[in-house]
């Protein structure tokens, strides 16, 4: 995974991205943001129109008035990410509808998308505020995604144990053969990976995604040893055992993980954005070139989230559901062309033109998928 999930997230806020436009947007767009809490981000400031507001349904309108792309984070205690919005370009604004619980938080604007950010403390008051009326179909969807995630974890553990056993036996070729398969279940649940706390940074961080002082552990450290170094050290054997332990921790966390309909929808969209802008370059599995296996699992996990939310989304926006059905089918058909049996083509054999085709297909899906969260918000 890329560095977009850089620390454990706390799902205290369910986001529904409701639109993004140029600063010179229409009057209709301006009117839609007029009742929002304004977040004016620049290269040197992060200004909020309010720093105290009641809990419940909240609209944030983020305007980037600076010269650099920025990110906006909402942090709970201990810098745990409540929510984030990345790649807000200069001169653009993004409206975010959210349900936020009472408590103390910080909003951070990060010009240049680096560092700790320019921060403002906020206080959210009340005992939970008025929340949207629950739709039992959404509750069923969340329960079903919990079950799906549990099934993926339960299926992953035996494979990752075989992977670790091969490493402990010093069998490089067997370990290589199990690497991609050991990742499939995790990659399918990445739309809600932030719900599992620190499992992601422990198991799926690339070397260039490490935070200062963070020890490199997990799949990609072992991937480098197997392919780049063609060697297994005693330290690698310990890392393999730790990977098993960390994934068993994931397995145990799933029943109590806080997953919502909007976190499913937004997580699926953010994951596909990551695929289109980062993973498609080959950065994820840069040594093994097993990227297409990850892509396929990501798409499957995103589609599962959509399929479970579709009954509500289709009722609100039938055209959106039709488009999503078409685009999911298109990208899965494209991926199937690169699969022989259970094995995908090595990504170093995929040409730049073909990679662009993948990126275009993912983008064609991600754009309508960005509307899914708004289509399942019950008003």
Give the key terms.
single chain, 379 residues, alpha+beta, Immunoglobulin-like, A middle domain of Talin 1, 2 domains, five-stranded mixed sheet, disordered N terminus
Walk me through the structure.
The chain has 379 residues and is of the alpha+beta class. It has 2 domains: 13-125, Cupredoxins -  blue copper proteins (Immunoglobulin-like), CATH 2.60.40.420; 136-376, A middle domain of Talin 1, CATH 1.20.1420. It contains 11 helices and 12 strands. The strands form 3 sheets. The chain has a 5-stranded mixed β-sheet. A hairpin with a 3-residue loop joins strand 6 (70-76) and strand 7. Helix 2 runs antiparallel to helix 8 (291-316), helix 7 packs antiparallel against helix 10 (352-369) and helix 8 packs antiparallel against helix 9. It is globular. It starts with 12 loop residues before the first strand and ends with a helix.
Short description:
This protein is α+β, with helices and mostly antiparallel strands and 379 residues long.
Average pLDDT level = 86
Structural class of the helix and strand makeup?
A: alpha+beta
CATH H-level superfamily of the largest domain: M75 peptidase, HXXE motif
Number of helices: 11
CATH topology of the largest domain: A middle domain of Talin 1
Biggest sheet strand order reads 1-8-5-2-3
The CATH class of the largest domain turns out to be: Mainly Alpha
What summary fits the major beta sheet? 5 strands, mixed
* Total count of domains: 2
The general outline is globular
Tell me what portion of residues adopts beta-strand conformation.
15-25%
- CATH architecture call of the largest domain: Up-down Bundle
* Share in helix: 40-55%
Q: Report the C-alpha radius of gyration, rounded.
A: 21 Å
> Any low-confidence stretches, pLDDT <50, length ≥5?
2-33, 128-132
From the N-terminal CA to the C-terminal CA, the straight-line distance is 34 Å
Please write the string of helix (H) and strand (E) elements.
EHEEEEEEEEEHHHHHHHHEEHH
Oligomer: single chain
Question: What is the total tally of β strands?
Answer: 12
